[in-house]
Amino acid sequence: MAAVANPPVPSKSPKRRLLMIGVPVLLLLGGGGAAAWFLLNKPAAAPQTAALPAPAQYLPLAPAFVVNLEDTPMGPRYLQVEVQLVTRDPLAAPLLQQHEPALRARLLMLFAQQTYEGVSTRTGKEALQAQALKEVQTLMTEETGKPAAEALLFTSFVTQ
């Protein structure tokens, strides 16, 4: 009996071979490209906001200051003002309290030099507030080497 030869296996066509190799390569390259695009095109990180300042500490200089204003033709006038010092340095608060008698003395002298007309306007009050802060910072710099107070607030201001 004659041996039957197996029919030759048709070789895969070049188009089919290209599809079998090309499609996975394209998928791999496409996935890699998409991953690269995603990683490189991240939205910019939100800009870091500046750190918040330390919380303000308010130190009232109690009791209120009461002084005679310089005489006017209308007769004696008085000024009553409540003052609070502002600091953000936790180490400054005890220093301000320690030097409170000297601070009160300086502010008392400053307030007693005022005239009714000088403190009757907003501009006059703001100028007095700036002078008072300067007095506090000058004294504290002399005593401690640093101004200690960041601001000075008038929490009550009465002229009569």
Please tell me about this protein's structure.
This protein is α+β, with helices and mostly antiparallel strands. The protein has a domain at 57-159: Tetrahydropterin Synthase, Chain A (2-Layer Sandwich). 46% of the residues lie in helices and 24% in strands. The chain contains 5 helices and 3 strands, in the order αββααααβ. It has helices spanning 14-40, 92-98, 100-112, 116-119, 122-144; strands at 57-72, 75-87, 151-159. It has a 3-stranded antiparallel beta sheet, with helices on one face. β1 (57-72) and β2 form a beta hairpin. α3 runs antiparallel to α5. The chain is rod-shaped and about 140 Å long. The chain starts with 13 loop residues before the first helix and ends with a strand. The relative contact order is 0.14.
Bin the strand percentage.
15-25%
CATH class of the domain at 57-159: Alpha Beta
- Please, how many helices? 5
What's the mean pLDDT score? Answer: 85
Structural class: alpha+beta
Q: Per CATH, which architecture of the domain at 57-159?
A: 2-Layer Sandwich
- Helicity range of the residues? 40-55%
What is the general shape?
rod-shaped
Distance between the termini: 139 Å
**Radius of gyration of CA atoms, rounded to a whole number:** 41 Å
Poorly predicted runs are none
- CATH fold call of the domain at 57-159: Tetrahydropterin Synthase, Chain A
Strands ordered across the widest β-sheet: 1-2-3
Largest sheet: 3 strands, antiparallel
Number of strands: 3
Element pattern in H and E: HEEHHHHE
